[in-house]
Amino acid sequence: MAGQIQDGLGRVLEGNVSMLEKAMSAFGEVAVDQDWSADEPAPRIEKPRTIARPMEVSAPGTFSKNAIRTLRLEPTEMSGWWLQRSDIPDSLPIKVSIRNVWTTGEIVSNIVLRSGSSHNYVRLVEHIIALKAGMDVDNLLIKLDSGDPPLFNEGSKELVEAINSAGRKELEGKVRYFTVKERVSLLTPHNGVLLIDPADEGSLSLDIDCVRDFPNAIGKQRIRFVNNERSFLHGSTARTNTTARQKFLVSTVGKLFPESRNLGYNSKNVLIAGKSKYSNTPTHMHEGKSLEAAWHRAVLDLLAALALIDEGRFVGKIIDYKGGHYPDVEMVKLLYAHDLLVEV
């Protein structure tokens, strides 16, 4: 079994214990800005569901801003979510699974899934696959016309609306739920903490306590919520965030690098944070403060990692402080590597 067991931290899967303890202390000092933790969890689903009819959504590409990219959503009886490149003849669909994660990006942090050939990949999948963990669709086939998905102006709002417009169809079988066997934790690259507790006995709730902490206009933001229809729809419209400096570098020096040369970030589809104020208008205002960065992180980034648990739906309690795609994916990988998942 991995790691040592520490009071308050549970089984430490990665990172220095004293640094983790400092991170937990710093996390606890951040005031809660918005608290939806008393909400009812999403209802239990017994039979797996797919969409009732195909739908298409299009927008400029994430990494090819001058090209329109299309996602075609199709019903399927294949278990889980699948991505298929229609531009690569005879390519196998890529299952949304921790087993198919290729990288979490370097210049632009994002989850890249791949199956078989190195050409058969899809970049920046997190804002798509988060819907697997946040909506009542267990099986879905998504066809793409390239490895570069569209980048929408309001998070994943258009994709959520398309799935809801498609309706649902029940399939044979049974939905499975998983949680961790015990408390687990790891240290993030920015000296934060990702900690997961098992679900309470008899509960199928996923509870998230998320903190963003940046030395810029974003500052400290903390939200607590239960993953259900209200919280997911609210968070799914939050844009990813970048700094004004990063945006400037991508638009100048970044043109020298293939990974960022045609990156489609603009003032509509990302939140741009300067040192003391935003360069564009933030959303998700609560009591005069924008919580857009926290909602995006918790719903469209963190839930994407949970979607990589491909056997079923994840339930439990999560603390996320200074997290990111790399520690998210590392956590899921270690849960599998050390047999720390259990079916509820």
UniProtKB/TrEMBL annotation:
One GO term of the biological process aspect: lipid A biosynthetic process
Pathway info: Glycolipid biosynthesis; lipid IV(A) biosynthesis; lipid IV(A) from (3R)-3-hydroxytetradecanoyl-[acyl-carrier-protein] and UDP-N-acetyl-alpha-D-glucosamine: step 2/6
E.C. no: 3.5.1.108
Pfam family, one: LpxC
UniProt cross-references to InterPro entries, sorted A to Z: Ribosomal_Su5_D2-typ_SF, UDP-acyl_GlcNac_deAcase, UDP-acyl_GlcNac_deAcase_C, UDP-acyl_N-AcGlcN_deAcase_N
Top-level taxon of the source organism: Bacteria
EC class name: hydrolase
Gene Ontology cellular component list: membrane
The protein's name: UDP-3-O-acyl-N-acetylglucosamine deacetylase
Known function: Catalyzes the hydrolysis of UDP-3-O-myristoyl-N-acetylglucosamine to form UDP-3-O-myristoylglucosamine and acetate, the committed step in lipid A biosynthesis.
Transmembrane intervals: none
Requisite cofactors: Zn(2+)
Keyword list, A-Z: Hydrolase, Lipid A biosynthesis, Lipid biosynthesis, Lipid metabolism, Metal-binding, Zinc
GO MF entry, a single one: UDP-3-O-acyl-N-acetylglucosamine deacetylase activity
Catalytic activity entry: a UDP-3-O-[(3R)-3-hydroxyacyl]-N-acetyl-alpha-D-glucosamine + H2O = a UDP-3-O-[(3R)-3-hydroxyacyl]-alpha-D-glucosamine + acetate
